[in-house]
Amino acid sequence: MKTSLRHAAILALALIAVGLGIFFVKAIALHYPLVPGAQATLWDFEIYIEFEGRNQPARIESYIPAGDVERTFPQEEFYNGSFGLSLAGEPTTRNRKAVWTYRYPANRKVVRYGAQTLGETQSTPLPLWFRESLTSVMPFEADSVKRQAFIVWSGNLRQRSADDFSFADLAIKETFEQRTNSEQYADEIEALLDNNSGVIGRLQLARQLLQSQGIPARIAGGVYLSEARRRVETRRWLEYHIDGEDFRYFPGGAPDRFFTIWYGTKPLVEARGVDNLDVQIALRSRDTEATSIAQNAPGRLGDVGRAVGFNNLPLTTQLVYEVLLTIPVGIAILVFLRQFIGFKTLGTFMPVLIGIAFRETALLNGILLFTLLIVLGLALRFYLERLHLLLVPRLAVVLIFIVMAMAGITVLMTGANQAIGLSISLFPMVILTMTIERMSIVWEESSAGEAIKQGMGSLAVASITYLAMSNDHVEYLMYQFPELLLVLMGICVMMGRYTGLRLSELWRFRALVGS
Amino acid sequence: MFKTYSALKKNGVIGINERNVRYVSALNPRKFFYKVDDKEVTKTLATAVGIPTPELYGVIKDARDMKRLSEFMDHPDGFVIKPAQGSQGKGIFVVEGPLKGGWRLSSGRRVDLDDIKFQINNMLSGMYSLGGQPDKALIEYRVKFDDVFGKVSYKGVPDIRVIALKGIPIFSMVRLPTAESDGKANLHKGGVGVGVNIATGLTARAMQFDRLIEIHPDTAHPLEDIQAPFWDDILLMAAKSYDVTGLGYIGVDVVLDREKGPLLLELNARPGISIQIANRRGMREVLERAMALSAVNRTASERVKVAKELALELNPLAVNSSS
Hints:
Number of strands of chain A: 12
Oligomer: heterodimer
Strand order of the largest sheet of chain A: 3-6-1-12
Number of domains of chain B: 2
CATH architecture of the largest domain in chain B: 2-Layer Sandwich
Order of helices and strands of chain B: HHHHEHHEEEEHEEEEEEHEEHHHH
Largest interface: A-B, 29 and 37 residues
Helix content of chain B: 25-40%
Shape of chain A: elongated
Number of helices of chain A: 19
Helix content of chain A: 40-55%
CATH class of the largest domain in chain B: Alpha Beta
Mean pLDDT of chain A: 83
Low-confidence stretches of chain B: 319-323
Largest sheet of chain B: 7 strands, antiparallel
Strand content of chain A: 15-25%
Mean pLDDT of chain B: 87
Distance between the termini of chain A: 30 Å
Radius of gyration of chain B: 20 Å
């Protein structure tokens, strides 16, 4: 007794934990939207490299986005023309490179790389390996003058800062600030930047300052996802990590969304043996169903999401499951209404089946048609009572009559231009027949009042389950997150061990309330 | 609402959910259900251990047995035709005796052979059985009920329901037919339930339609302090029923015959919980105490003794008021 209770509780909790676990992985890590019809902006990204061959061996190297940042990165494509393509990786920076080669190219040639991305935001975490790549480096080993300037300046920055956070802020601020004459270390900074005072040079200097303090830092290159156009500029920014916090510094202001392509100070594309190299980066945005992006999520986690889903099935089957998966929701509600509230229904799952039929008729019409068929069927059933028919043949007569009544209503309604007449054909006639039989037995054995009470109870439960099952949100959630079935199952196991009183029993035993 | 809930909980009232989870499904193995679902099996098992039941005149399983129908019905004192797997008295046909070439029913209606055959065919096709499976029709002795509850019954046959936990009788009530229940003793149809003290066999409180009453609604006789005769025999029948069925939580339905004393009518593996209203108290305490007592192996008569002691201990007021 006690052990079976514990067993049931463990089973229920395990089912709920597994179901919710998968649900949260999909909702949080894979960004499956929780509401139907959620949209997301997907960016088409293309590197377009055009050049003229010189009839001598040509080699074009381009950095392409690596998969190490946590980002949705569904499809990538290479357009090689007649060129040979090889992919190379750089172990230290973890960059990825596409290398196109050809022995004797002539005329204008084009190679392209295309991908789709959602982009990243400031909150996208930096990869773990980068956070832990702690190397305290002292730059300018070769140049003793620059080295001296660097030591003086960084030492001073260190004095003026409280911790790594304020050191980084100060270092970046002074590296990028317009220098004035009053600035104490203007000369040192000038010397360190040398003739390399552009953004890259300053980012480089800031990176060196951070790294000299043991702060992991790197320069990232990529594009800002702000508008759709050809010839998007590549941008550089600084990424660093202090005490479990990720920081990105974008010179000239941070974009909402950006797309990282490579790391380091090298240019995006390098070419040898070609003339008139022209690199264009094109961006185009389009609104897409957020679900389809989530379903195409990369990696093993994305496979988990795809495994618990129906998107590989034929469309017609998917549509069937869209409806089928809502039925357990109705069933769980029915269990609650029976075990906790104490609704009396004709037949155990009959109200849920009627509720499904309401999907086609809508609620009010459904209730009217259902009541009409039951009343007609009951009238026939009472007449048949006098003929003393045997049970099975009598059920058959009622069933045939139900089909006739349904056909008759359809014809009449269609004649009156009422489209709802058509939907009546979806009422489950066997269920209706059994309902009529049960109702007439209750009518005879107990009373007309009891029969009508149970009929109304069934109709009420059918309406409640219909409202739940036809809800767009419920349908969407159950279809996108079928693992919630485990949760429903767990809840039903728990309800199966409910030993308290039902709401209706509070009324029934009201005479026993006093002591 | 929560007040009502906690008051009922405090009074130890159990609901259908608790009955099903803690008692029916925990103590009644499904494989033994056939012993109580089929009244012919119940009768055979009960007779083997000396529990008296109404004498069986014949069983009709199919059309071939139907040829022997007139032989089975050859009892001028009347007889009862009932479906072997019926519940709640559904489909029962009480024949009082021959009348002008046909038979007279207890309701006064005259029926002929074809009417009876039709009724039996309905039973065979499973009209009254659980789930509608094919059934048998039993033809048996018609109980001539004892007058002890005559003044508080309106037509029909009163019966005594005893609930036994692992063979320890714990709760009991007398079910009395009323005009409203159409001569049937079923509580949900309007029969009156009167609590009976397990220790003494004296009736105490009463209910109808979930409400407390003091007098019979039709005969206006007071319902309290009627001594159920053969009380020890009835308790022993309830205790023995556990030994033959192996079902730990059963309702034992007994009728009192004028000549033959208490007879076992049927056993119920899912006895209702309205008996708590008839007794004006919840069952939980006595169920749990009896559960603890059942850890020790006892014979049927020892269990009756234990049950009486338990009833005296838990419900001493009832004894005082009736003495």
